[in-house]
Amino acid sequence: MGLMQPPFDPADLPTGVLMQVSPLVARVLAPNPSPFTYTGTQTYLVGTDAVAVIDPGPDDPAHLGALTAGIAGRPVVAILCTHTHRDHSPAARPLSELTGAPIVGCAPLTLEDDGPRADAAFDAHYMPDRIMADGERVSGPGWTLEAVATPGHTSNHLCFALIEEKALFSGDHVMGWSTSVISPPDGDMTAYMASMQRLLERDDAIYYPAHGDPVEQPQRLVRGMMGHRKQREGQILRFLERNGSGAIPDMVAEMYRGVDPRLHSAAGRSVLAHLIDLDARGLARPAGNGLWRTG
């Protein structure tokens, strides 16, 4: 889930079509475009003879039909989920029933979501057959996927590294089209920045995000995104220093000029995540009545 700023036409990209993007990786775009999901959720199929399915997406009959057609009768070794927002994991159970494959990957997580959009709520029905810890692997003929723990967007977020192609399925943690929304109480800016630093230190050659195009210079993008978050942090501190105190809606109005107003509530969640992180570091603190001031 991200904040989309540029316009897009979802009709420009076909849904339900299996598209080969590398020798081991193909993708199918789900029909769920929105200002938060960009052109929709991309489900990845990894492997040739027997496959893994990453982020099966929404429980949509057309999307499930497209995935079944793309699998084309091949054995499914595992169905993996990066996290449990409802645009990522609900199709796992019906796809498992169709293919007999186990559901593995992130841990289940349910809580009342007070975030910016209804379909970002957590999938309360997600029940994995195996939870993958950081560094654990699942493999099939010619491919190996390793779990990389990347909390921040959600506390249960995992990326999956495809060892044979030095590729990383980055879920919603890193997307080329947008920054990820960090929405407390589960979204955590401190954890997010630590996870970004971890990715920066890896040598992956390409990222395949759940939304948007492949990222072909991933370390450069991660470095830029970390810089963007530091700039946003600086904006917040300057706002508070200049005004003495301030409320989140006023910060959003100033810092997100030109962004679709429909996205301002989501922007406010990320500002709150920054403020919580700044509070933990002694740089800002709540001042009562929804106001914040410098620490």
UniProtKB/TrEMBL annotation:
One function term, GO molecular function aspect: hydrolase activity
Superkingdom of origin organism: Bacteria
Pfam families according to UniProt: Lactamase_B, WHD_BLACT
Limits of the Metallo-beta-lactamase domain: 40-211
Coiled-coil region(s): none
InterPro entries from the UniProt entry: LACTB2_WH (IPR041516), Metallo-B-lactamas (IPR001279), RibonucZ/Hydroxyglut_hydro (IPR036866), Sec-metab_biosynth-thioest (IPR050662), WH-like_DNA-bd_sf (IPR036388)
Gene3D superfamilies membership: Ribonuclease Z/Hydroxyacylglutathione hydrolase-like (3.60.15.10), Winged helix-like DNA-binding domain superfamily/Winged helix DNA-binding domain (1.10.10.10)
Keyword set includes ATP-binding: no
Key words, A-Z: Hydrolase
Name of the featured protein: MBL fold metallo-hydrolase
High-level lineage: Bacteria, Pseudomonadati, Pseudomonadota, Alphaproteobacteria, Sphingomonadales
